[in-house]
Amino acid sequence: MLFAQPQPTREPLRAAITRAFLADEAQVLESLLPLARVNDAQLQRIECGARALVMDVRARNRAADAAQAFLREYDLSSQEGVVLMCLAEALLRIPDAHTADQFIQDKLGSGAWESHLGHSTSLLVNASTWGLLLTGKLVQLDQDPAPSVLDVVKSLLVRSGEPVIRAALKQAMRILAQQFVIGRSIDAALARSIQDEYRRYRYSFDMLGESALCTADAQKYFEAYRQAIARIGASCEPGADEFARPSISVKLSALHPRYELAQRTRVLVELVPRLKALACAARDAGICLTIDAEEAERLELSLDVFEAVFTDPALHNWNGLGLAVQAYQKRAS
To answer: pLDDT by residue (tens digit) across 65-105?
Structure first.
């Protein structure tokens, strides 16, 4: 890649991070394995602690058994689980019925739903699997040569119309999305976070789908983050510890439309002041601000932006600025 300006000379630690990006994976694992070893006493404490946490969560989560069973069957290690997560997030944001119908057909048609039939002990999960199976096959009805009971049910679904299926799927996806999306606005999220079943958790609020495609988008997200910081700060109890309060997570790619290494100089000139303004607002509101992780190839740029804001004299002695670390990356250590 060619740059208009030469890249800066890195300090030893930053240079090591850069080298680790393309490091040999076997060598990285060899250096990490000794750090992961624990003795028998430590292993027993870990097992006891984990078992207690799991038992406690299961005991408290009876109301969400159906949703948990669904998520266990369709976890993110399966193609079907990924498809459902795509639907859960995207269907809530598709404005027109025609696009939603096309999206449903495209995504559900790609899953091997038959492989999940009868696997779960949950009646709801098995019923949902039949629904996903039938809906996923709707676009192939005319290609099935031999009629069967399944074909008959499919034809009934076709006669009932795609709007019925769309409505049912949207409702199912809303239920599923509630496991991951706490609210459609910061006010709704804050209101839900203080309900009895959610009060025991600590929150770092962020927005789904942030990505600035133009300067106007970046300004819109900046204002949304600024307002969210004010709302979160106002919701906190006076005198509460800063790290015990809810916080906010910010995507740098939402604050600049050209957040890429080739635009490093422009990013540092234009984005750093925006992030500094949000950090100062978070400090004044008494909450923490975390810079969310981006794609792996943007890490070097994220570190440049983080360093510029972290070392700014205006934020001297403030410990509320954080950086999310993708622990699976070879550069994490």
So the answer is: 655 666 666 665 666 666 666 666 666 667 677 777 777 66
Q: Domain 184-323 has what CATH class?
A: alpha beta
> Regarding predicted confidence, which is higher, 271 or 177?
271
The CA–CA distances, whole Å, from 158 to 96, 151, 223 equal 20, 10, 45
pLDDT band at 164 (very low <50, low <70, confident <90, very high): low
> CA 283, 328, 116: angle at the middle one, nearest 5?
110
Instruction: Give the residue from 242, 225, 238 showing the smallest Cα distance to 186.
Output: 225
Q: How far apart are CA 189 and CA 260, in angstroms?
A: 31
Domain map (residue ranges) of the chain: 42-177, 184-323
pLDDT at 148: 44
**Mean per-residue pLDDT of the chain:** 78
CA dihedral 206, 207, 212, 218 (to 10 degrees): -70
Rounded Cα gap, residues 284 and 116, in angstroms: 51
Of 121, 147, 120, 151, give the one whose Cα is nearest residue 133: 151
Q: Which stretches within the chain are classed as H helix?
A: 12-20, 25-36, 40-60, 65-73, 79-90, 97-108, 123-137, 149-160, 162-177, 186-193, 215-235, 264-285, 299-310
Are 203 and 246 in contact by the 8 Å Cβ rule? The answer is yes
How far is residue 145 from each of residues 155, 156, 161, measured CA to CA in Å?
13, 17, 22
Each residue of 273-285: pLDDT tens digit? 999 999 999 999 9
Question: Do 296 and 332 meet the contact criterion of CB atoms below 8 Å apart?
Answer: no
Residue 116 is encoded by which pair of tokens? 């999940």
Cα 104 from chain centre = 21
Task: Give the Cα separation of 68 and 60 in Å (integer).
Answer: 12
